[in-house]
Amino acid sequence: MDNNYKIEFEKFFSYSLSVDCLIFGYKDGQIHLLLIKRNIDPFSGEWAIPGDLVYPDEDLPQAANRILFDLTKLNDLKLHQSETFGHPTRHPQGRVITCAYFALIKIDEVNAVASSWANEISWIPVHEIGKLAFDHKLILNSTFNNLKIKLKTEPICFDLLPDKFTLNEFQQLYEYAFKTDFNKANFRKKIKQIPFVAHNEKQTKVKHRPAKLFSFDQSKYIDLVRDELFTFKM
Amino acid sequence: MDNNYKIEFEKFFSYSLSVDCLIFGYKDGQIHLLLIKRNIDPFSGEWAIPGDLVYPDEDLPQAANRILFDLTKLNDLKLHQSETFGHPTRHPQGRVITCAYFALIKIDEVNAVASSWANEISWIPVHEIGKLAFDHKLILNSTFNNLKIKLKTEPICFDLLPDKFTLNEFQQLYEYAFKTDFNKANFRKKIKQIPFVAHNEKQTKVKHRPAKLFSFDQSKYIDLVRDELFTFKM
DNA sequence: GCAAAAGTGTTTGGATTACACCCATGC
DNA sequence: GCATGGGTGTAATCCAAACACTTTTGC
């Protein structure tokens, strides 16, 4: 960005608007976040949450979906709005207000790729993320909190889990998110009401008794909720 | 820098940013929202949520606090961020992104006043609010939902209740918010753990047995939470 | 057989619910 | 006295936590 550019910027407009897109995935018992390594100043070389300015005539979720698509080639995923950050000095080069969205993806079904604006990307376990560019650590903390709140009341964990999962993978997702251990027997009693499809398939390549595979029964869930026979609660 | 570039640029950054401030109060067993009657187009003559453009060098909560102060002369209240709305056509005169905040006030301690930009204001029970200007009905619905979620997990009900309240006023606040009736004896058992100051005073001017007055014991609450002896849950 | 994790049953104590009853005040 | 809401006790039930136990696989 050359200097003229910045002068024009400040002369005509006092602020601009961006969205940041926090893409969460689950593997190896850990919730990961997709980060990009910045290759332009400011914060060149540092890890950041993917984001971009909102285009004219583009709705905010649409902008977030564009970023998501650029990185994952995934389309039309459910986006969850998180917090909006607008502190006057949060961006060193001008006033940029950013609205954070998060998306949950089945990590084994995508191959996140570098894009024009992100030549190095990486999945990093949420609890191991250190310093980030801008105020992105704040954005992550706030957004992960929002994710945790939704994990308690909506069946969005199944957006993170693979289509077929074991009950232990399911349990470990919550154990990682809330940093607590649950008793296996009690956990299974609690989730008994959740509508699952029990497959005949089992885990393979494990050196112990293989676990049964389950799927979330989306259509049965919708029916149950419609008839007020069940509310998801963890 | 050539001229084309500049035109592109202006187009790109021709948004403006506002905050809307939803001010809730509680009286007569109902949660009320402070609305203003617009006296300029668009939507002149219609009811709307108070809001204003964000000033340069002003943080978002600061802008919301400014609106709150203009209308109520209250300062430094806790503001809760709600949803951000940015649909390209949500404002008929241009692209305006708005970030919604809500504040909870003790309605009997303020005297909401008209201001330069709001010559008619009114407290309206939340469940009786009809059509509003712009997409303000959407904003209200989303924000009242956020309020309800926080009412379940944080002791913010005491920001709405008067300093000294009866247990029935307390109960009725939740009954109004969630549109359900609670059993009195069971409700009182549930709230037994909440730290209250029990006053010797009683209700006056009621034509039945006067109820005892209580206050929320803020400092005890903070101690209990710090020591993880209590979490607010309704 | 052994290690490792899958998977299930029992007991207990605390919380939730339904319901019944008594109490204090104004008129 | 009676109407009105304030205020409390009991018993049945449900739910969550703690814990122990059996099962199935690989090696």
Number of distinct beta strands of chain A: 9
Beta-strand share of residues of chain A = 25-35%
Q: Element order, helices and strands of chain A?
A: HEEEEHEEEHHHHEEH
What would you call the structural class of chain A? alpha+beta
CATH arch. level architecture of the largest domain in chain A: Alpha-Beta Complex
Question: Overall 3D geometry of chain A?
Answer: elongated
CATH topology of the largest domain in chain A: Nucleoside Triphosphate Pyrophosphohydrolase
Mean pLDDT of chain A: 91
Oligomer: homodimer
Q: Could you say how many structural domains of chain A there are in total?
A: 2
Name of the CATH first level of the largest domain in chain A = Alpha Beta
Biggest interface in this structure?
A-B, 28 and 26 residues
Helix content of chain A: 25-40%
| CATH homologous superfamily label of the largest domain in chain A | Nucleoside Triphosphate Pyrophosphohydrolase
Q: Quote the distance from N terminus to C terminus of chain A.
A: 48 Å
Cα-based radius of gyration of chain A, to the nearest Å: 20 Å
Catalogue the unreliable spans of chain A: 1-13
Largest sheet of chain A: 7 strands, mixed
Number of helices in the DSSP assignment of chain A: 7
Structural summary, described in words:
Two copies of one chain form a homodimer. Mean pLDDT of chain A is 91; it is low at 1-13. In chain A, the strands form two sheets. In chain A, strands 1, 2, 3, 4, 5, 6 and 7 form a seven-stranded mixed sheet that branches. A two-stranded antiparallel ribbon of chain A has the order 8-9. Chain A folds into two domains: 3-152, Nucleoside Triphosphate Pyrophosphohydrolase, CATH 3.90.79.10; 155-226, Arc Repressor Mutant, subunit A, CATH 1.10.10.10. Chain A is 31% helix and 26% strand. With 234 residues, chain A is an alpha+beta fold. Chain A binds a DNA duplex (27 and 27 nucleotides) through residues 166-168, 183-186, 188-190, 203, 206-212.
